[in-house]
Design goal:
The protein is 74% helix and 0% strand. The protein is built from eleven helices and no strands.
Length: 197
Amino acid sequence: MMSSELSKVQKRGPMRYPASETAEKHKRILEEATRLFRERGFSGVSVSEIMKATGLTHGPFYNHFASKEELMAESVAQGFRVTLDGIDESFNSEESRAQYLDRYLSAKHRDDPGNGCLMAALASEVRQEPQVRGPFTANLKAVIEKMASYLTMRGKHSARGESIRTLASTVGALVLARAVDDEDFSEEILREVRQGL
């Protein structure tokens, strides 16, 4: 390349990628971060590890996110989008609700936090992350409202109340089942909550 051509390239600045490629990279970063955060927690994963998992170098991270905290907040929103998308299928009948409870309160789900429920994996950490609490709160309210829209009034309890009880029971059961070091006890927790709901 001649010096005048090199000079023209240098003046143009860094190469730009097509918008579709940039969007795909953003999506990959977000998906890997969401998985890794669920597996190891917010503080258990570095930006470098996330970028390595996507097959990218550390440098381009800041082209997509202003900070790790911004990525954490967006990961929470992403995890809740998956939950919200699944509610229509999981709560549209008593049979589908029972199947959902069987899947959610299972040893398979317990043993795979990276691909499981964001709430059960990260709720205890969210309270320590001010930038994440707002998105978590807004999305939790949306999940409760959407679940409530499928739950009929049962006795004196409201559908919203039933939604909150169901969510708190299932998420809490999964958290406890993951925390104990006794397999039989862990399975008992999951079974008892499943039967109680």
